[in-house]
Amino acid sequence: MKEEQARILQLRKEIEMHNYKYYVLSNPEISDFDYDMLMNELIELENRFPELSDENSPTQRIGSDIDKEFKQVTHKYPMLSLGNTYSEDEIMEFDQRIKKLIGSIFSYVCELKFDGTSIGLTYEKGELTRAVTRGDGNKGDDVTSNVKTIKSIPLKLFGNEYPNDFEIRGEIYFTHKSFQQLNTEREEIGEPAFVNPRNAASGTLKMHNSAAVAKRNLECYLYYLLSDELPSDSHYQNLVKAKSWGFRVSEYMKPCPSITQVLEYIKYWEKERNNLPYDIDGIVIKVDSLKQQRQLGFTAKSPRWAISYKFKAERVLTKLLSVDYQVGRTGSITPVANLEPVFLAGTTVKRATLHNADQMALLDLHENDLVYVEKGGEIIPKIVGIDKEKRPKNSKAIKFIEYCPECNTPLVRPEGEANHYCPNEDSCPPQIKGKLEHFVSRKAMNIGTAEATIDLLYKEGILKNIADFYDLKKEDIISLERFAEKSAENLIQSIEESKKVSFERVLYALGIRYVGETVAKKLAFSLINIDALINASFDELITIDEIGERIAKSIISFFKKSSNVSIINRLKNNGLQFAIDTLLQNKKTDKLGNQTFVISGVFEKHSRDELKSLIELNGGKNTGSVSKKTNYLLAGENIGPSKLEKARKFGIKIISEDDFLNMIE
Ligand code: IVH
């Protein structure tokens, strides 16, 4: 037990150090796989010795499914906001005010103004004890369990130079990439998209399920320390120190001895902000010396020692030319505005998304309106308002369409949903093409073909649904415009290869509404084969983790349609995988009788997750790193040399994938 306790402490330290290197310094030292191995070993040890648990162990970052009502907490120091300026003149006035109060010997620090949601973190004896939102400035929500899932926020600090008790404040935000990923996933499962990264960040932070927060990749920059015992009189130096304790501090923070340098910093970032991977909405200018900060003090609402320069919203006025309606592969209708081309934040904008009927109604769009366009974290800009004074007289309100623009079928809007749909799944052209394209995509069947080829094969009447891929013959396609002997052969070969694609990906490829990659995996591993899924009742489906009513309803209605079932039968007859690997279906055995395995490297027949399941199904145990207690090292290709060396040193058996499969035959 002593030995395990030491190992647990060592693992926690090691994992937090890797978190710091990866999330704070952006300089990872080990592979994701090796990181997972350390984490698995720690999880396993903590499960075995619950008495050694620690609420700030890195394993706690996984979050929990328990629904929590947030406790309201009073801030020790009120969370004030900053005064805003919008012009150079106002910055000069700020500088003059300060000079009047403290004389001319002082220095500024300039920082980016992150556009997220603010957070106050309390650390006692080097451990995170509380995380509170701004709330009304005096009281906020205790969101500690959610904040613990953010990997760039340290749970325990490094070294011993930090104050015993202090608060550090910062901004929680989404990068553009994570924001887009989140919205794509939400659209996939029929949830409304977030309007901008800021709303997404504050919405996520207030979720009542920290396990769901953990999956969303929130990030955090820290910019303000509060304590009676800070190491330096310089705000800048204190933040540099905070970085060495484990906090993520912006690399763009800059000491500016004079107001001229402040203005240069502003000018630089006014342009350069378009190249940042996250949103900023201005620059924060702070007096560096804490002593001078205290001298300057606060007004009722904000500090006199700091101010923010807000960038003018990059927003342009342009004319609305028309509204198009795009039909997605699941029949969802997205309105898109065509605009008179206009230059905005580095690119020419011609189109803007209008999201859905509710958004359109909220804007109250009329024909030929002059509209304000803005760019947020999204690639496609959005219309944020209308100059109603410039609206031409008698211009008509634009109403959301009632019929599908492609096949003229009356649209439906399911209760409680934001989107309209075209229900003509079987013969609405963009829906069919969309389904074919989704089927071949990389994360689905990974069939090597271009969108234009699918368009052509559809137009020629060769492909009408996804099962038709498996009836394609070289002779059918070689005469077509885009094909030569070799390209036709390649396509047929790639289709043949796709028959090996695993069940969960086939399930995803079917394109059932709301069954994205993650949901497909859950369904596949819970129900094992397609027949169980086809026959599952609504009640059965909603008992599966992460499957809600909307998804369950969609699955039931998909399999109710005989045309879908007959497509699946054709795919089955063509040899596609409609069950989880037979080995994984085996009932539990005790063939591995408590033997401990370490898996490392890349394998030919099974993924590492599958091998792990096989070990557990057969009574064995998985651990992350090789120790004296390991019985087998299951070695794949590209296995790390240190693991091999350790295994040899301890005389541990090194086995191949085939050796392993023989053991459980
Ligand atoms: S300092 C006493 N620094 O802007 C004020 N704030 O209106 C301490 N913000 O609520 C705040 N980036 O959420 C500071 N580098 C930065 C900031 C920053 C963003 C936010 C913060 C605050 C708001 C001020």
Per-chain topology:
Elements: H1 2-24, H2 32-48, E1 72-74, E2 84-85, H3 88-102, E3 108-114, E4 117-124, E5 127-133, E6 139-141, H4 144-147, E7 165-173, H5 176-188, H6 197-205, H7 210-214, E8 219-226, H8 235-245, E9 254-256, H9 259-272, E10 280-287, H10 290-296, E11 306-310, E12 315-327, E13 332-344, E14 347-353, H11 357-363, E15 370-374, E16 382-386, E17 420-421, H12 429-440, H13 451-459, H14 474-478, H15 485-497, H16 503-509, H17 517-527, H18 530-535, H19 538-542, H20 549-560, H21 562-573, H22 582-585, E18 596-600, H23 608-617, E19 621-623, E20 632-635, H24 641-649, E21 653-655, H25 657-664
Parallel strand pairs: 2-11, 18-19, 18-20, 20-21
Antiparallel strand pairs: 1-6, 3-9, 3-10, 4-5, 4-7, 7-8, 10-11, 12-13, 12-15, 13-14, 13-17, 15-16
Helix pairs in contact: 1-2, 16-17
Bound molecules: 2-(butylsulfanyl)adenosine.
Residues 80-82, 111, 113-114, 118, 134, 171, 223-224, 284, 303, 306, 308 line the site of 2-(butylsulfanyl)adenosine.
Q: Given this structure, which CATH class of the largest domain is correct?
A: Alpha Beta
* Overall number of domains: 5
Amino-to-carboxy terminus distance: 35 Å
Bound molecules: 2-(butylsulfanyl)adenosine
What composes the largest sheet? 6 strands, antiparallel
CATH topology name of the largest domain, in short, is D-amino Acid Aminotransferase, Chain A, domain 1
**Coarse structural class:** alpha+beta
Describe the structure.
With 665 residues, this protein is an alpha+beta fold. The chain folds into five domains: 2-60, Orthogonal Bundle (Helix Hairpins), CATH 1.10.287.610; 72-310, 2-Layer Sandwich (D-amino Acid Aminotransferase, Chain A, domain 1); 316-390, Nucleic acid-binding proteins (OB fold (Dihydrolipoamide Acetyltransferase, E2P)), CATH 2.40.50; 429-500, 5' to 3' exonuclease, C-terminal subdomain (DNA polymerase, domain 1); 511-664, BRCT domain (Rossmann fold, 3-Layer(aba) Sandwich). Helix content is 37%, strand content 18%. The protein is built from 25 helices and 21 strands. The strands form five sheets. Strands 12, 13, 14, 15, 16 and 17 form a six-stranded antiparallel β-sheet that branches. Strands 2-11-10-3-9 form a five-stranded mixed β-sheet. A four-stranded antiparallel β-sheet has the order 5-4-7-8. The longest helix is centred in the N-terminal third of the chain and has 23 residues, at 2-24. The mean pLDDT is 90. The structure holds 2-(butylsulfanyl)adenosine.
